[in-house]
Amino acid sequence: MTSDDCEKISRYLSDKLDEADPIQQNYVLEVSSPGLDRPLISEKDFRRFMGSLIDVKLYEAVDGSKLLTGELTGYDGKTVSIKADGKEITLPVEKTAKISLAVVF
Prior knowledge:
Oligomer: single chain
Helix content: 10-25%
Distance between the termini: 20 Å
Strand content: 35-45%
CATH topology of the largest domain: SH3 type barrels
Strand order of the largest sheet: 4-3-2-1-5
Number of strands: 5
CATH architecture of the largest domain: Roll
Number of helices: 2
């Protein structure tokens, strides 16, 4: 989804909401895409981005860090695997605070 797509949707929805007037007080309509660092949530997300670089934020540190960055190599609903610094790391999903695409410039 591009920013142009977001703008088109925003204008369309804004016009429709103005016509229907379902909200009594003032509001601001914001339409946005998940962005470059979109979170991976569903199994479909993990399948789609297999092999991509991801950031894994953890509740508790592993090897002294609460943030791991690596290539997504596996996901089975209970665990997520990444290849980071030449080694394979498998973590229980319940130990992860957030898993998202890494932004690389």
